[in-house]
Amino acid sequence: MSFGLIIQIAILNLFVQNFVIARFLGLCPFIGQSDSKSKAVGMGIAVTFVMTLASFVTYLLYKYVLVKNSLFLTSIPFLKVIADDGLVNVLKTASYILVIASLVQFVEMFLRRYVPALYRGMGIYLALITTNCAVLGVALLNTTDAPRDIGLLGAVLQGFFAGLGFTLVMLLMAGIRERLQYLNVPRCFKGAPIAFICTGLMALAFLGFSGMAS
To answer: How far, CA to CA in Å, does 190 sit from each of 180, 187, 199?
Structure first.
C-alpha cells in the first residue's frame, strides 16, 4: 500500500467522510458523552480500539470464512432457506455484531478492572458501543460496501482513522459544550437540543474539507 493511499484514507475518515459529522452515525454516544473532555477522550479511545480490531477481524471473517466457504454454508439445512436472499449478506451483519460485542465486552472488563472511574463515568454508553452503527458501518465499508478491495491493511487503517475521526469530533463538541455551560442559553435549548444544533453547524463547517480526497 502506497503512502499516498494511507494519507487519502486518513483525510477521508478524519475530515471528508467523518462517520459522525458526514455520515451521522454513532450520534447516541457522541451526544451522550461529549459533555466533558475526559469522557470524550475515554469514549473516543474505546471506540477507536473497537473499530480497529473489528475492522481486522471482520475483514478476515468476510474474506476467508463467509466468501470462501459460501458453498459449504449453503449445504447446511437450516441455511438453505436464506441462501436465495444472499447468504453472505444475511450472515455478515449477525457475525459482525457478534465480533463487535465481544470486543466491547473486553473493553468493558478492562476499564472496570483498571480505570473504574472512567468506567462509571461512561455508564450505559460503553455498552452501547455494541450497537454503535458507526462501528458496524466501518466494518461494512471495509467489506461488502467497499467501492473496491483495499486489503487487510487498508481495512485496519480505515477502522483506526475512523475511530480517530470520532475522537476528534467528540473533543471538539466537548469543548463547545463546556463553553455553553457558561452562556445564557434559552431553557428550551439546553442539553441535547443545543448539542444537535452545534453538531449541524459543525457538519456545515466540515463541508469545507470536501474535495480534499475521494
So the answer is: 9, 5, 14
The pLDDT, as a whole number, for residue 190 is 86
Q: How confident is the model at residue 86 (pLDDT cuts 50, 70, 90)?
A: low
Q: What is the pTM assigned to this prediction?
A: 0.84
Q: Are 12 and 146 in contact (CB under 8 A)?
A: no
Task: Name the residue type at position 135.
Answer: V
C-alpha–C-alpha distance, residues 94 and 67, integer Å? 15
To which H or E segment does residue 77 belong?
Answer: none
> In terms of Cα–Cα distance, which of 56, 44, 57 is closest to 126?
44
- The SS3 assignment for 72 reads helix
Q: What is the pLDDT of residue 51?
A: 94
Residue of 26, 47, 140, 50 lying closest to 103 (CA atoms): 50
* 70 — pLDDT class (breaks 50, 70, 90): low
Spatial distance between the Cα atoms of 36 and 31, rounded to a whole number of angstroms: 11
Contact between 100 and 129 (Cβ < 8 Å): yes
Mean pLDDT, residues 138-147: 86
Extended strands (E) in 36-132: none
Q: What pLDDT digit, counting tens, does each position of 54-66 carry?
A: 999 999 998 888 7
Buried b (16+ CB within 10 A) or exposed e, 147-156: eeebeeebbb
As a whole number of angstroms, the distance between CA 198 and CA 120 comes to 27
